[in-house]
Design brief:
The chain is built from 4 helices and 4 strands, in the order ααβαββαβ. The protein has helices at residues 3-7, 11-14, 27-36, 62-70; strands spanning 15-21, 42-47, 52-58, 77-78. A 4-stranded antiparallel β-sheet has the order 2-3-1-4. The N and C termini lie far apart (37 Å).
Length: 79
């Protein structure tokens, strides 16, 4: 029995999508930096012209990922 089964948690209950906006010239940098963190999240560009992205993560990983993103050399505004 795995952790999710033990806690009787649905995967859809832990998934989290965070919408964010940043300067379009920094999107690629954000993607690379988050990718380098491995398991914490995935960045997908939703509107390149407006600098809109979504970050797919989990409720458990989001606090750590948010703290790390705030320390990155990119300015990200979370919606």
């Amino acid at each position: 029995m795995n952790l999710l089964e033990q806690e009787n948690v649905e995967l859809s209950d832990i998934d989290l999508i965070v919408k964010a906006r940043l300067d379009r010239s920094q999107i690629q940098m954000l993607c690379k930096l988050v990718e380098g963190l491995g398991h914490l999240g995935i960045v997908t560009t939703t509107n390149k012209e407006l600098g809109e992205v979504m970050i797919q993560t989990t409720k458990y990983c989001w606090p750590e990922l948010k703290e790390l993103v705030s320390k990155m050399p990119v300015e990200v505004q979370f919606d």
